[in-house]
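I hope you will forgive my troubling you with a question about protein structure. I am sending you one protein, given as its amino acid sequence and as whole-number tokens for its backbone shapes. Thank you for your consideration; the sequence and its tokens are set out here:
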Amino acid sequence: MPVLPSPLLRPRRLALLSLLLLLALALDYLQWHKRAYFWIKEQGFSLVERQASIWLPDYRAVLRGKPLAGLEDDETSGLTYHPGRDTLFTVTGKHPQLVELSLDGEVLRRIRLEGFADPEGVELVADGRLAIIDERRHTLTSFHLADDAQSIDARNYPAFDLGFADAGNKGFEGIAWDSRRQRVLLGKERGPMGLFSLPFPGEDGAPGTLQPLPMGNLFVRDISSLTHDVRTGHSLVLSDESRLLLELDEDGEPVSFISLAGGRNGLLEGIEQAEGVTMDADGNIYIVGEPNLLYVFKRRAGA
């Protein structure tokens, strides 16, 4: 006669099955299996291939979450490097501002942004102009910034409609400048996630057509910011939800990545909400996170 399982074992089995289901969902959400697979793949890259790329595994955090003075009650988003000034620019959304920073995170000046609803990305583009993405209005606005400017009014400049009007708060957040091809690179956050290119709008606001770019098997949940490296032609994709910084080649295929979790790559604590990334002329990487923290990553000596 078969022995029936004890009723006491059934709750344990249900608890075990529930735990395994939760684990499977977590693995799928964080896509750890894809990260592990690509980490193994990274080990096979030759020295020549690494030298021809940015190669993120060689980077370590040297500035770990410096607060940006005066922005405690705001939400920083987007980041760009200005080589002519050797400074950084970011934007804030809660109280729309364009903020200039030193490379070590000192706030140099703040410029009011009027006529913007939700500035999410900023980039230095052609002719020394700055371009700002307004996610809520799904527009791109570019302008020259005077040294003595105290405010910028979007209504005084042409705005290019990026489309995806029904995207809501899942629209374009990432923006980068590809100087080789004179085009803007754009990252749509999610729903669906996507990469696009746009020939840069001229002073009359008449750009070319928004074109989708190829994306390989990106193991990230969202795109919160982009930057482009003219030396290699590669781009960096920042993901807030996945806590990853990912390097892509010109075909949109992953090349390298680093985790932004605590205890990894020189970080004592993880970057909670990474919202902006850029690189300077020396290849140093800067990340800004909400609410108002700056991180700097530099290549290890001898790497």
Remarks:
- The longest helix spans residues 9-30.
